[in-house]
Write a structure and sequence with these properties.
- A hairpin with a 2-residue loop joins strand 3 and strand 4.
- About 25% of the residues are buried.
- Helices cover about 25% and strands about 30% of the residues.
- The two termini are about 35 Å apart.
- The protein has 4 helices and 7 strands.
- The protein is globular, with a radius of gyration of 17 Å.
């Protein structure tokens, strides 16, 4: 019996399957020359809920298409799509002894479908492929729901830090050994 639709991003948009089976989209790595306008829109809409909740404001508010293109050249940007439109993404940056996972974003209309978990699993696979023993990410102190989500995915808190000009911790660092 079928249990999963694989390579879902390759399905024809006019095909509607109402069988209730979960879908697995294949992540696509973006080249520095890719069109980053839709990705920037995805990140900004995904991070919009943080406005007014976190201080200082998210760096996503200052992110540009040029920044994403540069990050795709220095690291990796991975995308999940639905009918050619970005619905989830992440930025991976190899660093000294770890792979940093940043800008993990899921379109609000596609949340609670396991897309973030799928991207994190892909990040773990990339860390293994790069022979890096740890996957790291950061989230804001105020976003307790993110802390619980990352802990449920196997991350543990490894530290807290403050943005320049702040005397209190503003960021929580999480890590997962590979």
């Amino acid at each position: 019996r079928p249990t999963l639709h694989v390579n879902w991003n390759e399905h024809l948009p006019w095909v509607a399957l109402a069988d209730g089976l979960p879908v697995h989209r294949t992540p696509r790595r973006l080249a520095p020359s890719a069109d980053f306008d839709p990705v920037l829109g995805l990140i900004q809409s995904s991070f919009a809920f943080m406005q007014g909740r976190i201080d200082p404001p998210s760096s996503a508010t200052r992110l540009s298409v040029a920044d994403l293109s540069r990050q795709a050249g220095e690291g990796e940007i991975w995308l999940l799509e639905e009918a050619g439109h970005p619905i989830a993404c992440m930025v991976l940056t190899p660093s000294d002894g770890h792979l940093y996972l940043g800008k993990l974003a899921v379109d609000p209309a596609f949340r609670r479908q396991g897309l973030a978990r799928q991207l994190v699993k892909h990040a773990v696979a990339r860390a293994r492929a790069l022979a890096l023993p740890e996957l790291r990410l950061e989230t804001r102190v105020e976003l307790a729901e993110n802390h619980k989500t990352f802990q449920a995915m196997g991350f543990t808190e490894t530290g807290r830090s403050a943005h320049p000009g702040f005397s209190r911790a503003t960021t929580v660092t999480f890590a997962q050994r590979i």
